[in-house]
């Protein structure tokens, strides 16, 4: 409706000719009053519905110009959480598994392993159950389970009830691996090849390898025992990834993780290690008993693949110092001499230079590029995708160096010293080797994760402390979460799913550690080995790939009682996750995204309740308070 305002004329108020000063006649007042009454009665009559004006007014109201525009608008919300309908069936409740599964490792079970050949350690590799054999229950904690000791005390002490296996205390008693003292295990820091302790052993290595200045950050321990080497490297700001098979040395990897040291169940067998090429700054074998010279040298070639140019490999144990130990090892001098010659010849063919041999220790350095050595081109691997390793057969070939222009250039790019390395742009990005990842997107990702981690710490003040020491990021991306939360009080296992973009190389170049994995299968670890599990977009990634229930049950298996789960994902998929976890003894809540409640992504936070297995029944003892 249009509205007009009469124009007000301004006059000189003091003028005697001003009409406003004149007196209005009584007749004009009566006329005005009569007109007002008439229009009032007319309006009342039309309003009553008896006048013709009502139909005209209704037609005008109906035929507005906005009629078509409003008809297309949808005011219904599109990302709200549906309110549960009490008439629908309740969520499935998952029962506790039998107590015999307390230490269940789905892809490394002894019964299944014995069906496979022992040649090349195939039977100790990953052999996962088919879908119909997967457990659909909750793995119980052993009776008396306790939260691990905080770091650094946890490095040296483990609750007996958590890992109730005394086998190593007897078999390795004279090597000081582990001692049983009442209700705890004590780890004095000894090892088969470092009877004076891990610190003294690392000091000797540091006389050759630049461990102290941040040049060496990531390390690989093949056949790690209880991972004392990795445990004592941590105070020198070096992260070691340790692995050992699940064999007659029961629970050695479980001990490592219970101490708060990164480790996985694994073996050098017939398939490639689940790491990218040029991942580690240092690797060692301390009496790991891997036959380096056998199988045409393929095991040492695999170590070469994951070792960065310019970095170091340590061998302590057979055959090094064979003149002293040949009788103890019950082998002939000739046999041991031939074995060492074979290893040295193989190392030379890989472009490694021997830098040190004294007593029980020998150290080689991989050259920074191949310009100063001769490698037979026929020995190079033919595949150009050297990081496609998941369940891929180990090859008897040499992984090619990245191309260089000068004799002193480090193949693959030179890394900054840690901690500057953590936030610096990794060479794989600056050289454009990671598809669709630019310097700008990498830096923006780092900035975003600092904001996200700050949100987590506001929600739970214990995040960033030793309360949550063993942390896993199930979909690590660029490693932004791990970089933002980095502290000497914790470490993060950065998992890059095999169906996600391959970013694990840049994670390692930041000075972080990680692994490839397919979450449709069990992870290579024992139950109750992580304090905090994080996942960004994980369930959207796997929604149509495998059963989300299986992923959540696996998370429950590897999460410690009173552990924490943080997920970021679309609200629709998190609704499905919440329905499943309602039957899993998790206390769950959903938080809004940092940008507000109208963002369709949400934050899922869950605390795993404390409960232990008991023959015949199970008991819920406590809940973790928010």
Automatic annotation (TrEMBL):
GO molecular function terms attached to this record: methyltransferase activity
Pfam families: Methyltransf_29
Keywords: Glycoprotein, Golgi apparatus, Membrane, Methyltransferase, Signal-anchor, Transferase, Transmembrane, Transmembrane helix
Lineage, top ranks: Eukaryota, Viridiplantae, Streptophyta, Embryophyta, Tracheophyta
InterPro entries registered for this protein in UniProt: Put_SAM_MeTrfase, SAM-dependent_MTases_sf
Protein localization: Endomembrane system; Golgi apparatus membrane; Membrane
The keyword Chaperone belongs to this UniProt entry's keyword annotation: no
TM segment ranges: 26-45
SUPFAM superfamilies recorded: S-adenosyl-L-methionine-dependent methyltransferases
Name this protein carries in UniProt: Methyltransferase
Membrane topology: Single-pass type II membrane protein; Single-pass membrane protein
EC number: 2.1.1.-
Membership in a protein family: Belongs to the methyltransferase superfamily.
Enzyme class: transferase
Presence of the UniProt keyword Transferase in the record: yes
GO cellular component: endosome; Golgi membrane; trans-Golgi network
Record-level GO BP terms: methylation
Signal sequence segment: none
């Amino acid at each position: 409706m249009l509205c007009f305002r009469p124009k007000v004329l301004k006059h000189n108020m003091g003028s005697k000719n001003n009409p406003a000063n004149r007196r209005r006649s009584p007749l004009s007042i009566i006329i005005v009053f009569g007109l007002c009454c008439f229009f009032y009665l007319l309006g009342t009559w039309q309003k009553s519905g008896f006048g013709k004006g009502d139909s005209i007014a209704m037609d005008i109201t109906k035929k507005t110009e906005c009629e078509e525009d409003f008809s297309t608008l949808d005011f219904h919300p599109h990302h709200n959480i549906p309110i549960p309908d009490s008439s629908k069936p309740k969520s499935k409740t998952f029962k506790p598994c039998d107590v015999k599964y307390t230490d269940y490792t789905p892809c490394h079970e002894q019964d299944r392993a014995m069906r496979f050949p022992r040649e090349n350690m195939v039977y100790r590799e990953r052999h996962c159950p088919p879908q119909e054999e997967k457990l659909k229950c909750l793995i119980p904690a052993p009776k008396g389970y306790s939260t691990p000791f905080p770091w650094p005390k946890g490095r040296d002490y483990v609750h007996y009830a958590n890992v109730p296996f005394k086998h190593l205390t007897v078999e390795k008693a004279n090597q000081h691996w582990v001692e049983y003292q009442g209700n705890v295990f004590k780890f004095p820091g000894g090892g088969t090849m470092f009877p004076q302790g891990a610190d003294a052993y690392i000091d000797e290595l540091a006389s050759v390898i630049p461990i102290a200045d941040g040049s060496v950050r990531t390390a690989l321990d093949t056949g790690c025992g209880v991972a004392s080497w990795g445990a004592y490297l941590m105070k020198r700001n070096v992260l070691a990834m340790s692995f050992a098979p699940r064999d007659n040395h029961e629970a050695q990897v479980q001990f490592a993780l219970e101490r708060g040291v990164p480790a996985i169940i694994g073996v050098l067998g017939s398939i490639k290690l689940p790491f990218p090429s040029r991942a580690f700054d240092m690797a060692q074998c301390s009496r790991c008993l891997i036959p380096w010279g056998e199988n045409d040298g393929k095991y040492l070639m695999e170590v070469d693949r994951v070792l960065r140019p310019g970095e170091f490999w340590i061998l302590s144990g057979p055959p090094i110092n064979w003149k002293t130990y040949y009788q103890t090892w019950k082998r002939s001098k000739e046999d041991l001499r031939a074995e060492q010659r074979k290893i040295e010849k193989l190392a030379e063919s890989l472009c490694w230079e021997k830098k040190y041999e004294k007593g029980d220790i020998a150290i080689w350095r991989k050259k920074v590029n191949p310009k100063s050595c001769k490698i037979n081109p026929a020995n190079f691997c033919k595949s150009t995708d050297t990081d496609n390793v998941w369940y891929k057969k180990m090859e008897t070939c040499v992984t090619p160096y990245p191309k260089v222009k000068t004799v002193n250039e480090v193949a693959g790019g030179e890394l900054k010293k840690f901690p500057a390395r953590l936030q610096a742009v990794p060479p794989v990005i600056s050289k454009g080797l990671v598809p669709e990842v630019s310097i700008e997107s990498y830096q923006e990702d780092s900035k975003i994760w600092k904001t996200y981690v700050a949100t987590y710490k506001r929600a739970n003040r214990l995040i960033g402390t030793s309360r949550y020491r063993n942390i896993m990021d199930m979909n690590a991306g660029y490693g932004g979460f791990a970089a933002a939360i980095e502290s000497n009080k914790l470490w993060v296992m950065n998992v890059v799913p095999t169906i996600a973009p391959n970013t694990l190389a840049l994670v390692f170049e930041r000075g972080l550690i990680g692994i490839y994995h397919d979450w449709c299968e069990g992870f290579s670890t024992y139950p109750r080995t992580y304090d905090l599990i994080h996942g960004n977009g994980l369930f959207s990634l796997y929604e149509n790939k495998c059963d989300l229930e299986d992923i959540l049950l696996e998370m429950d298996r590897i999460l410690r009682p009173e552990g924490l789960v943080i997920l970021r994902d679309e609200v629709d998929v998190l609704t499905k996750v919440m329905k499943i976890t309602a039957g899993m003894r998790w206390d769950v809540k959903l938080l809004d995204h940092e940008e507000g409640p109208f963002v369709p992504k949400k934050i899922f936070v869950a605390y795993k309740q404390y409960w232990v297995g008991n023959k015949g029944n199970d008991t819920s003892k406590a809940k973790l308070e928010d």
